Amino acid sequence: MAAALINVPKRAKRGDVIEIKTLMSHIMETGFRHSTTGEPIPRDIITNFVCSYNGVEIFRADLYPAIAANPFITFFTVATESGKIEFKWTGDNGYSETASAAIAVE
Amino acid sequence: MNGAAITRALSAGALAISFTIIAASAAEMAPGERKSGYDFMTRDTQGMQDDDTVNPGMLWVLDGEALWNRKAGTAGKACADCHVDARTSMKGVAARYPAFDAARGRPLNLEQRVNLCRSERQQASVFRYESRELLALTAFIGRQSRGAVVEPPSDERLKPFIAAGREMFMQRQGQLNLSCANCHDDNWSKKLAGAVIPQAHPTGYPLYRLEWQGLGSLQRRLRNCLVGMRANAYDFGAPEYVDLELYLMTRARGMPVETPAVRP
Amino acid sequence: MNERNRITGTTRRQFLAAGVGVASILAVRPASATPEAMAAAIRQIVGGATVRPGKVKLDIPPLVENGNTVSLTVSVASPMTPDNHVTSIHVFNEKNPQPNVASFHLGPRAGRASVSTRIRLADSQTVIAIARMNDGSLWSDKIDVIVTLAACVEELI
User: What ipTM was predicted for this assembly?
Assistant: First the structure.
């Protein structure tokens, strides 16, 4: 189970600047903590986030352990054409999740 | 604030208020005086709760919705196969739990009620307390009551359990010899080691606590306070907690459900 | 087996095991990143170029309730046209174990140069945001944050 919460307007006028909000389930274990027995708790974070609009990358983020659990990222883009906005989160231990949202631009 | 922080604050003498001179109060709070924990938070934290598109608790609600529709157990049934659309069937349900269960002769909280359907209706294994699944389902069910007012059942059979919960709330306990009421009835709105003491209303659970960096149940919150008081923290699911939950719900009667709330 | 265990179907043993799992994570204060470490991390991204104050606006609530989750917004004054736009925004902090917080890569298609996220702050400290423009110039803003409850302190349940 790993839900992502994506907020993209369903429709927009061509040229509108729209806000995209994303929340992804992830513990973001920093790698700087230790158990009582002194063993380090290994790092387990999302390191990369990419957003593409009809196949073209429009936004990218490199994340570090200082990003809070359940990473929240919002940004803007210009509504250019109808289609699909895709999201991809990748990280430690082969972590990879995707989500997408449709947008109608008139 | 976590339990350890409460203890630290108390033992370091960093208290702005002296608990030792305050007699355990028997006075109930007047309805007009009641405030949700929400009212004591910063604007920024309130904003996180107000907007579903930025509220991390909604991640669990989404997981809960998926689980609601997933077939499980030897019965091969999903919750949705019997309860259909949770938006109607579960509306207001969380606002009236814990509720009396005749078969067991005592109140059950929502977590136990869900697990009852898991074992008896789905014939599946029950979910562990604080497991992602149980939190997700109770968050999803609780979300269907958002805005509904807390309305504990007016069931005669609940009376002794409410009384037991109230006694536990008023009674001094633990190495620090504090009662819940010392903080939450008599000293709410005062500061304790950086945190404002709220009135202890159970209206937002399960909720996303920034301290936990995740969702947690009301029982987890109660354990945090008990540990802070250096009192006996019961096992999850203990009847003592359910009684206390029940008392907190009667104390919050008429307040709106906020699930999934956000707290510091 | 008492009644409650029958209801939940979970044994006391399991509960204890679960409890120990949580409790074994201890509040350990790791070595902090230093102002020098932050300067080094910044150098790695900007090279030898000068970073000027201005154009960038870093927003963090003045008082933070819990360092585990701190809202942060960086906005840059830019028309975001093909000729004049922000190409990246970098956020650093001086007292977390590692100075890097996040880097965001954007372009004229953003329409507006503004990003928000939530970060962890282990202590009261200075946070810096730096924006790189397409002409190579670098701009920054910094803010001092007071944290009442630090991040990374796992409660002992």
Answer: 0.96
